[in-house]
Amino acid sequence: xxxxxxxxxxxxxxxxxxxxxxxxxxxxxxxEAGANLALLQRN
Length: 43
What we know:
Order of helices and strands: EHE
Oligomer: single chain
Largest sheet: 2 strands, parallel
Helix content: 25-40%
Distance between the termini: 30 Å
Shape: flat
Number of helices: 1
Number of strands: 2
């Protein structure tokens, strides 16, 4: 997947449920697109 269309440098994203599954995949994709992340989990 090309992330050239989704440049998120300088943006902040909050991702919940980031330890596994969809949340982890979303967090990885956002980080690769240049976003700063706030990762939220209960465990």
